[in-house]
Amino acid sequence: MTTLPAVETVGPAAARRAVLAAQGFADPHPSGPVTRRHLVRTLGRIRLLQLDSVNVAVRAHYMPLFSRLGRYDRAQIDDAAWSHSARRPRLLVEYWAHEASLIPVEDWPLLRAGAKRDGWWRHYGALVERHPALVDDVLAAVKELGPVGAGTLEAAVGGPSRPRPPGASWWERSDVKRICEYLFGIGALTTGTRRHFQRLYDLPERVLPPHVLSAPAPPEDVAARALVLRSASALGVATEPDLRDYYRLTPARSRGAVAELVEAGELQPVEVRGWGRLAYRLPGGRVPRRITGRALLCPFDPLIWDRGRTERVFGFRYRIEIYVPEPKREYGYYVFPFLLDGELVARVDVKADRRAGVLWVPGAFAEPGADVSRVAAELAGELREMATWLELDGVVVGERGDLAAPLAAALR
Q1: Which candidate, 217, 322, 226, places its Cα nearest to that of 266?
Q2: What integer best gives the mean pLDDT of the chain?
Q3: Distance CA 384, CA 407 (A)
Q4: Is 201 helix (H, G, I), strand (E, B) or coil?
Q5: What are the strands, taking DSSP E only, across 341-393?
Q6: Per residue in 179-198, pLDDT tens?
Q7: How far apart are CA 308 and CA 319, in angstroms?
Q8: How far is residue 152's CA from residue 256's CA, in Å, rounded to a whole number?
Q9: What would you measure as the largest C-alpha separation in the chain, in angstroms?
Q10: How far is CA 412 from CA 120, 402, 407, in A?
């Protein structure tokens, strides 16, 4: 008979500190310039950077490193993801992980092994079956022209297509774009580079290093266990659905991997008071006595992208309101939670107004029970840091929210 490990019980505050430590918030910012080595260390913790097209403040994949390291040169991410040289090899590649993400190149085989659930691109399968020659033409054109954008491919390939009508949204894609995204989803194409954030498609063999391409594909169960361990390392303390969601694994593979890892002693079951579901952590995971410091978190930061988990860990209800009509928004268009000494104590609506040269804060809101004067002072300091990082001249605060006036006063 297999002896199940004892289940340790921990309090919610200890679990929260373990979560923050795993995500890199228990360490001070570097005392000097941020180097590639700092990036590698932080990426080794959080494992991926989610990509998103919204650019109202700063692109989502840049912000998590600023939140953990402070001011750094965003070109370091561009170099790590979209360029390669013998001296500075490519560190990251684009693929569907949690969502469209930058992942370490070494993780490509794990995500291609079949443990993940199929994404939305599966709906383009019928189009691929109807036009197999168009698929071949797209791949041939990418081989000849890549890295190349979908618009150039449409002109080069021709053939059956359904171009977007005038005024159509970005989601109303042409058939060529749909096939590109399908091929991207199954790993037959990846991103060679980006130009003004437009994805330029290329073949994986021209993007990934040879040792990654030549690595044998792991069995699904092996890949699932490896990805669950990466999730556990990044999350600190997590339920099985939390572990599953980090890489969007299939439920069956995730549950099986967790059970196997617990039996092998590589995952430790933990009961967190108030969570209502068994959690897991790596044996010997770090639990600091206290967390200090401050950080602004973009909506797609891995600490908070799972809204249910954010509420469970921090008691902080958070929703993104981009698609909510403006009169119905509670807090604003693109709201950043503010982390201070291990607690989410405020939220600010943030926009980089480059024409005016300022970081514009239309609204600022304190959480119930927060020390408003201290929160305002710390938030003012962090907003100034963010403005400097984005090469803006200052911070301007609007009138919405109970924290707006104290924040404006702290910025004077």
Answers
A1: 226
A2: 93
A3: 12
A4: strand
A5: 343-353, 358-366
A6: 999 999 999 999 999 998 99
A7: 10
A8: 44
A9: 69
A10: 48, 17, 9
